[in-house]
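User: My collaborator sent over this chain with a note saying "see what the structure looks like." That's all I know about it. Can you take a look?
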Amino acid sequence: MEYRGSSDSLAVLDADSCQGVGAKNCHFDRFSNSRGLRMKGEKGFSLIELMIVVVVVAIIAALAVPALQKGIRAAENGNTFATMRTIASTEVSYYTQNTRFGRLTEINNVLSSSIGTPSGNELTRGKWVFSMTPAAPTDGELRNGYTITATRNVTGEGVTYVYELTQAGEIRQVLP
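Assistant: Without extra context I'll predict from the sequence alone. Here is the result:
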């Protein structure tokens, strides 16, 4: 249908009525006036409408970003927990072969450096630092046991995560 006439009196035309009018004057655009021009108030989005969209997007982002960061932290914590289980089972194998538990660097070498990058007596994996207590244990100390600590302390997060693994194979969360 087409609306024809002035803005005060519009005539409605259907497809059959347009046959004698010609292609120029007969089209089906309900937002047009009789001359085929857009009406005055239909030029696009107003500034207010665009600002409302921006505010809605900002609110959604403000809610989504913390949830995403929490999910990332949970995944990294789960990965670290799995790494500590791998360390525990590798320590048992190492003890069977050497009658003592292994140092972190030795265990990392057995696992083809999959735990992390060595940095002195510590290993760094992403945002996590793995350390052994004592830092440089003797072979005699390693016959009796070990304690490995995984620490995640990222500046600006305000939360420190600490996991601890003992020779009994127990992993416990120390912090938070």
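A starting point for your reply to your collaborator: The chain has two domains: 1-42, 47-175.
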